[in-house]
Amino acid sequence: MKKTLIALALTTLPVAAMAEVVLYGQMKAGYEVNSTKLSGEDRDPYLNGIADYGSRIGVKGSEELGNGLKAIWQVESRIHLGNSNGNSDGLANRDSFIGLQHDKFGTVRAGRISNAINANMDDVDAWEYNSDALGLGKFTRTDARYVGIAYNSPNWAGFDFSLLYSPRDNVNGGDRDGEYDVGMGSGDKYSIGLNYKNSGFYVKYGMDYLKNSGIKSRRDGNGVVNGYDLKDGQVHRLEGGYDANNWFVGLGYQFTKNTSSHFSDLNDDEFSVKVGEHNVILDNSGQEAALTVGYHFGNIFPKVSYAHGFNVKVDGTKQRNTKYDQVVLGADYDFSKRTTANVQAGWLREGLGEGNGKEKTTAFGVGLKHVF
């Protein structure tokens, strides 16, 4: 049930407007401990502390304009509980927008808006965590927010779609006078989402298209590099599963090209090129898959996830020892509809490139979440 926000900061608003203003949010934090071991070396000391799991607070509202049309707005901000790692909190740094919504024709918004992948495609990542070893953070790293304009369709018999466009000057407001204006995040961004849900079964597809995010080597007949061509980036994520009758099953597949890679060392000099003032990644691609299964026993929800990233390709060549494997297991306990405790353990093993061995991380966490 929506709660009306009556606060000192809003006392100057008309009474009619105040009736449509809603305060909402989530407070999530816990205790985590983790340790990493490199191949051939002793295990690093265990790190432990209070971790924030994505706490947030927001204010939203609407005004009926008649004939099924209403104005909508939202301001949502990130909150870091126990801010000791330099993380900064700021107003409207999450989804914040203004727009129009119609019962039959859908919704148009302008502002800072989640791409389709971030908006509603994290079902397979059913965890609360800070360390990537305790959740599918590597798989969901392509979640993003863009400053732009978005359209969301109404729901037609379980089907809906979304479109988001972020203009180049909202992505990168720098000058265009150089020979190249390239680099990850330097061009227009486009996002498309398609969703279907019926009787507990669901299928979701999200795609991002990122202009000028990478470079492809140009080679002569002898295979010698003699130049570079600009390349665009892509992200494709497909999720499907079943969420009903106490069961949850989520399966995800992701393909990335010329953008954020699951191989964390992709931005090293070995795989990037200096062009003007930009350090631009070479043409690359990667594939990943993830599976989560859980079952509700009353208030208890035990679950387990497995994720795998395949060896990546860089400049057309598959790179050895660039894959990862991950297992997370744990359970949630619902004290109420709004308050949930969680406990989980995770293991993450990732390759560091040919000849560089592997990095293995073990982690444990316990936390609490309250939604209001």
Question: Can you give a write-up of this model?
Answer:
Strand 3 (56-66) and strand 4 (69-78) form a beta hairpin. Residues 1-19 have low confidence and may be disordered. With 372 residues, the protein is mainly beta. 3% of the residues lie in helices and 56% in strands. It has a single domain (39-46, 107-371), classed as Porin, CATH 2.40.160.10. The strands form 2 sheets. A 16-stranded antiparallel beta barrel has the order 1-3-4-5-6-7-8-9-10-11-12-15-16-19-20-21. A two-stranded antiparallel sheet has the order 13-14. The N and C termini lie close together (10 Å). The protein is built from 3 helices and 21 strands. The protein has helices at 15-18, 116-120, 168-171, and strands spanning 22-38, 47-52, 56-66, 69-78, 96-102, 106-114, 145-152, 159-166, 189-198, 201-219, 225-244, 247-257, 272-275, 278-281, 284-295, 300-309, 313-314, 317-318, 324-334, 339-351, 358-371.
The CATH topology comes to: Porin
Count the domains.
1
Q: Class, according to the CATH hierarchy?
A: Mainly Beta
Enumerate the strands of the largest sheet in spatial order, edge to edge or round the barrel: 1-3-4-5-6-7-8-9-10-11-12-15-16-19-20-21
Number of strands: 21
Low-pLDDT parts are 1-19
